[in-house]
Specification:
The protein has helices spanning about 10-15, 50, 65-75, and strands at about 20-25, 35-40, 80-85. With about 90 residues, it is α+β, with helices and mostly antiparallel strands. It has one domain (about 10-85). The longest helix has 14 residues, at about 65-75.
């Protein structure tokens, strides 16, 4: 797991792939209970993207309060986003 995420993977792929979806899951897993999955596609042309998303981490590394605080920021900057659960 990356302790301090950055956009290095995306920056490497953006020249050849217009849309890159980032995914995160939360839950007990398919064998132990329900799972919720979120996906987001970020813009490749925002010079302040990393700064705007400062603090975004794997959901398991964030408190519920911090996750709730980050949701509007992610939705505002994302090209699109989706949540899926059973």
């Amino acid at each position: 797991m990356i302790s301090i995420p950055d956009l290095s993977y995306e920056q490497e792929l953006w020249p050849t792939h217009k849309y890159i979806a980032g995914l995160d899951e939360a839950g007990r897993g398919a064998l132990a209970g329900p799972v919720c999955v979120g996906a987001v596609i970020l813009p490749d042309d925002n010079p302040l993207l990393a700064q705007t998303l400062s603090g975004v981490r794997d959901s398991k590394q964030l408190t519920p309060r911090k996750r709730d605080q980050l949701v509007p920021r992610i939705k505002e900057i994302a090209l699109t986003w989706v949540l899926a659960s059973p």
